Amino acid sequence: MQSAIKNDIKKTKREPAKRIDYIMLITVILLVIIGVLMIFSASSVQASYEYNDSTKFLRSQLQFAAIGFVFMYIASKVNYKIYKDYVFIIYIFNIILLILTLSPLGVSVAGAKRWLNVGFKFQTSEFSKFACIVTTAYFINLNKYTMHKLKSVIIPIGFLILNCALIYVQPSFSAMSIILMVGLIMIFVGGMSVKFMLISAVPFGVGIITLMMKQQYRMARLMSFLDPFKDTSGRDWQISNSIYAMASGGLFGVGFGKSTQKYFYISQPQNDFIFAVIAEEFGFLMSVLLIFIYVFLIFRIFRLFVDTKDTFGKMLVCGIGLQLGLQTIMNIGVATSTLPNTGIGLPFISYGGTSIIMFLSMTGVLLNISRYRVSKRKKEVVK
Fold it and tell me: What is the pTM of this model?
């Protein structure tokens, strides 16, 4: 009997199980549906004013979501180990995209060059999130027995710094920060010693603070976080109205589509502050339920992390889970004024073509990895 179980476990290293994690898939689809509905509600006023079409953002997001699901399906069918074989092509392609963004081919919006025009505005830092996860996972897998040594962590950190430097000059401080955090935590989880982690935390922390202080608007965001009601008609306008929106929702909300703060009191309500509109229209209880859905999704990803035995696959799961979790925490933290304003979207829900395409694509990678998982608790192939 034990011999048969061992043979089954060995077999899974060569052959995938027959089913993906459908619970994870259903959870992601639910979040996308919530996002589409809330984008329509949150953006209808602005879309009517700017484009004379209340469904402008809704139709765009539906198109992007459809493309994202196609990419998710393809990624769920492609063996995740192929990314290991093409890791340098992925990374170099990512660097080329970032450089092109800074060239005349880049699209400038509000003084920032973060997009390329490829028929639609493609935000290159969104692809960087995946490219850096793959690259970091590759080096952790390559040096899995020596990650406690400094020479094994210097190279992946160097790749991260080069990528983040190109994103910083766009400028996109929030994207740079979250990519750096995800990469460093992956390296730590991959085996970096606590001593090296503590030593590196000092220069990285000082560097982040220094970069933040170099721009006046970043310091203004920090001051707004410390006192969100000091200048409600100026510096604190966004965050104070976000808080007003959530307070107006009470326990059960004012009803779908009945938000008042979306009437130009919140800037881009379909994007960075969409959680505030959700809280206003559906109330505290539904907001908590939405947070629970995200927590449940992270739990499913954590289970996949535990059940994945291949180091490269395990670190891909770790990186994608960290990206999703940290970005969710940062977005909701900003909307509730528990974190300084970072200008980052809520995964699967906020408006943004590149974001939803990349998050759905990364979900496809997770689904593919789930086909190869082996449950250590049950000691049997997951079929």
Answer: 0.89
